[in-house]
Design goal:
511 residues; Cytochrome p450; two-stranded antiparallel ribbon; iron ion binding
Length: 511
């Protein structure tokens, strides 16, 4: 019996010693991991931008408001300055805030901010090494080819030959007919504006438009809206930061399904387009792209391929339609909330051009107040608060700080459009921001809704034409008002790929 108790006692002592050793080993490994985490990822140079203290392994992820991420950035900028650094896991993130910082970084050092980071989430939307499109492509030869092609063909099929102006003017007539058919009754303008702008993007790229009742364009608009919402859900932001997460089941996988549905429609249209193509005469950007593909045959390194043409058609349709239609919606909302501004715009248009003469870009200098209102709509709408990020390939000096190599850089456009040092009434709708003492239009240096630098929005000129002609034609033909027995629309902001107003009803009363 004594022998048995001795054996049991010995075994107990050994087990306790074993677990004590395991515990000690685990504590040692944890301390070593914390030390390595600090030495390799957390230790700061004196010239790095200031920022919140990161936690081991997590960085600042637990300190950010995932439900309202855009609320976190102004709070951090107020505390740490207009150029601050945070960490997502072990990845350095820098946020550019305010006009002065953004001008120095993206204006004076634009070549240091042209590369895009690798975003694993994008592979769900068909982005690969040989298919990067235009917006999210890195600063590769492919991006330069695609950018050069886009800008050149915008001159050929859009800006250079007044084609775009005529295209938008005709579409504005179709839009007015749709509004007139409402008979002055309450309606939601969202899909009408999206269809009008979507038709411009289809006409530019594919040479044709759709009727407003056409099932194909309505399907494209709904699918695109669905895709944008899925992209911006919180779980998809985690996918963007961690590639392995894209293999875990979840709502983010819907991106692949929706994107495939969208490209299937565009592929069907593209195949029909090929059947009627005349190699001797390019009707639109798609014909021009197909010609480049013919030239690139036998050149495997060329970025001109069928996957990229579908990607670029998708990007132009999705981003071009979402942003411009959202801005028009904000414009209509501001007009019903500020009827005195709407009346003054109508009076200026009528005095200079009457109620029937179509307006073109050459008429813009004659409409200083209308021009000021359009700029203020864009400033207040602030539809892309945070632009697509960059990544640094070497240390970049900005002011007294150094942005380190391999750092993801976010461009807070909202902080420029609402910069309290640059605007008299940054949080109010105030067209006088763009008028001098004599009522003439004045440019403002901090008006940067399209960003600046080589990565500024490539569709800026398209958007300017669309906004001017659509907006002035609508106010020339209609007076917009809040329907009787309807509440005053709220100016709350809905965040998706871009910022839209809450759905609202208006009446369009023919003039």
């Amino acid at each position: 019996m004594e022998t048995l108790m001795a054996v049991i006692s010995w075994m107990g002592a050994q087990a306790l010693s074993f677990w004590n050793n395991i515990t000690a080993t685990l504590i040692y490994l944890l301390l070593l991991a914390l030390l390595l985490d600090y030495v390799m990822f957390r230790r700061k140079s004196s010239r790095l931008p200031p920022g919140p203290t990161p936690l081991p392994f997590f960085g600042n992820l637990l300190q950010l408001d995932f439900w309202h991420p855009l609320n976190t950035i102004p709070q951090l900028a107020k505390r740490y300055g207009m150029l601050f650094l945070a960490q997502a896991g072990w990845t350095n993130l820098v946020v550019l805030n305010g006009f002065k910082v953004m001008k120095e970084a993206l204006g004076k050092k634009t070549e240091d901010f042209i590369e895009r980071p690798s975003v694993p989430l994008l592979c769900l939307a068909g982005y690969t090494e040989n298919c990067q499109g235009l917006v999210m492509a890195g600063s590769s030869t492919g991006w330069k080819e695609q950018r050069r092609f886009f800008l050149s063909n915008m001159k050929n099929f859009g800006m250079g030959k007044k084609t775009l102006e005529m295209m938008v003017s005709k579409e504005a007539e179709h839009l007015c007919s749709e509004l007139k058919s409402q008979g002055g009754t309450p309606f939601k303008p969202h899909y009408l504006m999206s269809t009008a702008v979507g038709n411009i993007m289809c006409a530019l790229t594919l040479g044709s438009r759709f009727e407003y009742s056409d099932e194909k364009i309505q399907t494209l608009l709904h699918l695109t809206e669905d895709l944008m919402k899925t992209f911006t859900k919180n779980i998809t932001q985690m996918v963007a930061a961690r590639s392995w997460f894209s293999y875990i089941p979840g709502p983010h996988l819907k991106i692949r399904e929706v994107y495939n549905d969208i490209t299937a429609i565009f592929k069907e249209i593209l195949n029909e387009h090929k059947k009627t193509r005349d190699p001797a005469f390019a009707r639109d950007m798609t014909d021009a792209y197909l010609e480049e593909m013919e030239k690139a045959k036998g050149t495997p390194e060329s970025s001109f391929n069928e996957q990229n043409i579908l990607k670029i058609i998708f990007e132009l349709f999705a981003t071009g339609t979402a942003t411009t239609s959202a801005t028009i919606l904000w414009g209509l909302l501001e007009m019903v909330l500020n009827p005195e501004v709407q009346k003054r715009v109508q009076e200026e248009i009528e005095k200079v051009h009457g109620r029937d003469k179509p307006l073109m870009m050459k008429d813009l200098p004659d409409l200083p107040y209308t021009n000021a209102v359009l700029h203020e709509i864009q400033r207040c709408a602030d539809i892309i608060p945070i632009a697509f990020p960059y990544i640094t390939h070497h240390d970049v000096e900005v002011g007294k700080f150094v942005i380190p190599k391999n750092c993801i850089v976010f461009n807070n456009l909202s902080s420029v459009l609402k910069d309290e040092t640059m605007w008299e009434k940054p949080h109010n709708f105030y067209p006088e921001h763009f008028l001098d003492a004599n009522g003439q239009f004045v440019k403002r240096e901090a008006f940067l809704p399209f960003s600046i630098g080589r990565r500024a929005c490539p569709g800026e000129q398209i958007a300017k034409v669309e906004l001017f002609i659509f907006f002035t034609t609508l106010l020339q033909r209609f007076t917009f008002c809040i329907p009787e027995n309807h509440p005053r629309p709220k100016e709350d902001r809905v965040f998706s790929f871009n910022v839209t107003p809450l759905p609202f009803h208006i009446c369009a009363i023919p003039r």
